[in-house]
Amino acid sequence: VALGNRSTHTCAAMAPPQSASTPWFSPNELYFGLDVECVATGTTHDARAVAQIGLVDAWERPLLNLVVKPEQPIVSHLSPLTGLSAEILEQYGMHFTQAMQMLRQYLPKEAILVGQSIHTDVEWLGLQEGIDFQGMIDLSGIWRVWNTKYNSWSVFSQDHCLTALLGIKVGDAHDALGDALKSIRLFNFYRQLQDQPREIEKAKESLLKFEPEPSFAKKHPVFDGVCMGNRKTCTCGAPFLTFG
User: Fold this and answer.
1) Which own/partner contact pairs does 77-81 have at CB distance under 8 Å and 24+ positions apart?
2) Considering all CA atoms of the chain, what is the largest pairwise distance in Å, rounded to the nearest integer?
3) Tens digit of pLDDT for each residue in 19-68?
4) What distance, in Å, lies between the first and last C-alpha atoms of the chain?
5) What's the alpha-carbon Rg for the chain, to the nearest Å?
């Protein structure tokens, strides 16, 4: 899904297609892939402001692709990572309040949000579990693997999972709509295998065997003078978000 396709930033939700390819979807469970891209408003890794929101339904159809123009001064658009620029925000950006009104219109109260470290996206947006949506599914949790070599859990990036499990090669550049699509695609793959323990095991084995690409934060601990939040190399002193 390309951010550059800006003829519209909202796509009306359609009724789910009735086909043999999607028999596992329960009508009582409404899953949505959600992702947020942020620009830097300071030099620490926690100085971020929402600049794009992407929402995709369980059938991988784009619902919202919203560009947000932050009120705070922007230190860096982190363009190689976010795909965003001053020109994009100026041309397509809306106020955060307007974007949230649109997002809430598309999210039913029963929604289950799916994403990589989805708690972080929810925190950025100020959404409330039990009020704005029903629950969350973190892909880093369902695709984590017990690593006997280190006697600990190995957690993989969304892009690593996409490449190792689905054979889709991706680069550093991200956009919220594209990442939301990746999230729901990986979740749908998990749902297809969830009643096949051996297939789940084989998939997780492939995650360990496949050599991961270094993340943007690992390759660029500091970009445009902004700390990228690599825990091993961070020197900015800002806290890291943790969720119980």
Assistant:
1) 77/39, 77/40, 77/51, 78/38, 78/39, 78/40, 78/223, 78/224, 78/226, 80/172, 80/173, 80/216, 80/223, 81/172, 81/173, 81/174, 81/216, 81/223
2) 52
3) 334 434 454 468 999 999 999 999 999 999 999 999 999 989 999 999 99
4) 33
5) 18
pLDDT in tens, 78-99: 999 999 999 999 999 999 999 9
Helices and strands (H and E) in the chain: how many: 9, 9
Instruction: Give me the long-range contacts of 25-30 (CB less than 8 A, separation at least 24).
Output: 25/58, 25/59, 28/110, 29/110, 29/112, 30/58, 30/108, 30/110, 30/111, 30/112
Task: Calculate helix-pair angle for 197-209, 158-166, nearest 10 degrees.
Answer: 110
DSSP at 107: S
What one-character DSSP code corresponds to residue 72? S
| The pair of three-digit structure tokens given for residue 201, joined into one six-digit string | 């095991």
Give which of 86, 13, 110, 92 is closest to 53, Cα–Cα.
92
